[in-house]
Design goal:
750 residues; PH-domain like; 8-stranded mixed sheet; 8 strands; 6% strand
Amino acid sequence: CLTWLCSSVAEKTGKVLGEFCRCYKEQYGVALFNSVRYEIEGNGGPQAQLLHRKVPLDDHVIYSGNLFQYIEENKKWRNRFCVVPHNYGLVLYENKLAYERDLPPRVLVNSAGYKILTSVDQYLELVNSSLPGVTPKSGHSPILKCPTDFPLILWHPYARHYYFCVMTGKEQEKWRAVFQDCVRHCNNGISEDSKVEAPAFTDAVRMYRQSKEQYGTWDMLCGNETQVLSNLVMEELLPELRTTIGPRLKGKAQERQRTWIQISDAVYRMVYEQTKAQYDAAMAKCEQERPQMESTIRTDMDQIITSKEHLASKIRAFVLPKAEVCVRNHVQPYISSILEALMTPTSQGFAEVREVFFKEVTDMNMNIVNEGGLEKLVEYMEKLSHLAFHPVKMQSCYEKMDQLKLEGLQQRFDVSSTSVFKQRAQIHMRQQMDDAVYTFETLLHQELGKLHGKDDLCKSIQRILERVLKKYDYDSSTVRKKFFREALLQITIPFLLKKLAPTCKGELAKFQELIFEDFASFILVENTYEEVVLQSVMKDIMQAVKEAAVQRKHNLYRDSMVMHNSDPNLHLLGEGIPIDWGEEYSGQPEAEPAADKRRRAKQVVSVIQDEEGVLPYEVGAEAVLQPGSPEPREPNPGVPPSSPDGVEEIREALVKESLGDGVEAEERLTNVAPASPVPGADVLSEARVPHAAPASPTPGAETPSPSAGTACHQPSDKETGEEVAPLGGECSPPQPTGTTESGEGVQTEF
């Protein structure tokens, strides 16, 4: 069975990647031509008024803290120290001391494609639907029990699931906001800075799916390129495996569900490794051919453009009449409804961004008046400079997009989910907030040398705030209008292509003879056809957005409103060295040792304080939650702990947990059984968070320096779980990307 499984995975992966790589090679030439043409001709939109920060989170940690994780290998809930670094990976350490000593983490999670669930019932519903016909009977124990009322579950349709819990609702809200920010960031894993590879990749994915009659948005277009392609393979492979393997799983319903999740994760890892190898080879080949292709483009640019326009005119004459009828009958009547559904939550979200920024700066100014001095300004500016990356303070902005509902339009236009539009708008919100904050701190930094006294400082802050808000209003209007146009195209174009396919797609082959052979790498009939279809609806979309701006209902600037650059030297300031308020004004020029710098890394989100008498997590010692005992016991590294007897006893143990001696954390935990290549193969027999921003930022507490570290145990694949390249090769235990053989650390690329 294992040999058959590995063979099936390799065969399906090879088939899908073979077809995709053909699409990618075609789209690469088109994307390269478009990039060179844009470089030569230039067609930029309105100039942004706000500055853009190049390295927003260097040497910062988004959040760190303790929470309980369910370890599937021994069915235990264990205390883990979780760190969310600037790259938004979830890094789980055995305890805080292990992190401070730079010991390797237990688990690395790239959260792309995951959903954050705060209810066990939600999770069980998804698990029950993943394996049709396998549902635990009423009264039987479910696949997962949580010892508290505040679970946090990371669910993925293909990869491993992660189970966490905390003690209070306040902690759950904060962790949920942090996890959602991680998912949002990791989902946006394809770099927009790449002007050739990124559009070539996304267009190739779209063309491949359309060749399978799959139009419309796709929820699993998330993560980096290899993750997206792995999702593409799994979308076709998993139903086949479910049909073949599902009926042959043995045991109780809960055991079959657990086994299926393990099999799916193992297959996903195998697919990932094989996909990465084949995609990297295809990319390398295109890069090798790029210089020659680019030379041809620059030499024959005019001829290529003329040839493409001639082809477009012929296709337009054939397609446009049919497309215009389709637009008039099936799209035009609904454009205003779609736009209104998009505009209301999006504009509310951007208005909330403005309000949060205004409130934070105003509170800072008032506190400076009351407390006084440059020292307090530096303290507050260090916090304000990363406001956009504070998941809890930004949550009131992000949650406005939860109102986005397309109602009946979603079914009409084959939009599987609105999540792609929600996340895109939220990413724009975060970027606009950071641009506003960076512009504010740059202007204020420029003014500091000219100010005399506290009154001058406060007046200057207020004046700069007003200037930045005007710039924000203009830029946010530009960003929103672009977002609305792109979203309308994403919704309507696939619908039109699907409608026109029966009458138009079969006739496109006859236009191939109009393309000169020398230019065939840069001009594709299919792409030109889609451009013609886009032109048929673009006029109506532009008109709808323009009319919305004229109404001023959502605080949009009209297209005729052009804000001239009132700060001609501002963008030059933005090119300078990034401002470090602490180093520049703290009076401590000497550099910190690397180890101290790691321990004292600035944290964007402050740790929850023990304000309500809630039992704090222990910092030093590993808590082994043993049911039926009043105090947690320390693990014996040589003896695997026994399984818990019941969730009620675990809950009692959690409530009674107390602080342990940090020295005891030096004992490393070894609780892992050897990993099999495909878990479960032995059973294949015959076969809304509220806005919680404080009135003013408060500095985080410094961590005391621990003693020198000790030798560490190198975690196995079972311990490390999901790597950033979270997957393994064929029938062999997967190795983390960049893991050092010496066991000094687990390196990764999120």
